Amino acid sequence: MSSLSFSVARLLRAEESEGLMDLRQILVVDDEAGLRELVKINLEHEGYGVLQADSGAEALRVVQQQQPDMVILDVMMPIMDGWEVCRRLRDFSQVPVLMLTALDQTKDIITGLDNGADDYLAKPFNMDELNARIRALLRRVPSPNRLVIAATNQVSIDRQKREVLVRTTPVDLTPTEYDLLLLLSENAGSVMTHEQLLRGVWGQEYTKDNDYLKVYIWHLRRKIEEDPREPKLLLTEWGVGYRMAP
After folding, report:
1. For residue 217, how far is the Cα from the chain centroid?
2. 75-84 LR contacts (CB < 8 Å, sep 24+)
């Protein structure tokens, strides 16, 4: 292959990768591989990127690491059912959740919605109806390409580039500091408890390590506050947790 052909091929691959990053990403969670594949084929035909998880624990990891635009979640899974997954998701994410399950009684639907689901579709389902419900849910939330803005426009986070601006100045954060700031900023104006922050950034096994969290809050304040000893952006809710100014 000539150097020119190689350069053109590399450019095409780069453009293709950039296009894939712009797709709305949907996570499909189900312990049945056949159903996941069926939904995946349909979603890709509709122009979505598709992530998959075969268990509740894997679903939580994927949401934390990949930040999909939406989750299609089965209820009847071993070890951790969909209701529990949804409850844990809501500790750190407001990603839209569509329950897709054979449990179609009114009490089941109410349980799903009470645990944080945004919509509920019973199996067997029609693909056209599934697609319509997906479009409706995605219209309610911004694309991940949009900036996360918080603290009276003083904090701006580009999730695609993992870049942070504070008062228009770039700020270098460690991966953990970035994850913590992003979680607080996505929930700006709302109090995030110690447990929610620890679970959302570090995982379930760290939910009692409040002193660990305090250290990272102090590091963040040193980087984003004009005076970290008198914070105006990242506020303490004594005995409860922390809140990013809206």
Report:
1. 21
2. 75/99, 75/101, 75/103, 75/108, 75/112, 76/101, 76/102, 76/103, 77/29, 77/30, 77/31, 78/31, 79/55, 80/55, 80/56, 81/56, 82/29, 82/56, 82/112, 83/111, 83/112, 83/115, 84/56
Instruction: Render each residue's pLDDT in the chain as its tens digit; 246 residues.
Output: 443 333 334 433 433 444 444 578 899 999 999 999 999 999 999 889 999 999 999 999 999 888 898 999 998 888 898 889 998 988 888 889 998 877 766 776 777 677 778 888 888 888 888 988 888 888 776 665 567 889 988 999 988 788 999 999 999 999 999 999 998 998 888 898 998 898 888 877 777 788 889 999 999 999 999 999 999 999 999 989 999 998
In whole angstroms, give the CA distance from residue 112 to residue 29. Answer: 15
Contact 102, 91 (CB under 8 A): no
DSSP H helical segments within 96-209, as ranges?
A: 106-114, 127-139, 175-186, 194-201
List, in order of start, the domains of the chain with CATH numbers.
3-139 (3.40.50.2300), 148-244 (1.10.10.10)
pTM: predicted TM-score of the whole model, two decimal places: 0.55
